[in-house]
Design goal:
alpha+beta; four-stranded mixed β-sheet; globular
Length: 100
Amino acid sequence: MTHKAKCGPERDPEFFKDVAEVFAKHPGASRRYSVRCLALEAEVLGVDITKQVGVSRIEGDRIVTEFRSRDEFGNGEDEPPCCEFGGDPPHEFCVRYCLY
């Protein structure tokens, strides 16, 4: 099964130009982050990141991500650590929680 997501520098060249400048300005931080396209989850799996959140766990040598309802998670200390953020400042939100 092959799917080509509608993402990347060809689609959003100005965005990627700005990201490259930010990464160059903050090389230490840039090694901890990446830019990921969410179109594949939305287009192929039908995930709505406004209503669902990814939850990733390590199984052997794989990272497995399942999408769950945001209603399952509160905004408290019991929430798992967020490892992927989305949205526009100042309204960022968690796209994926990581269970370690």
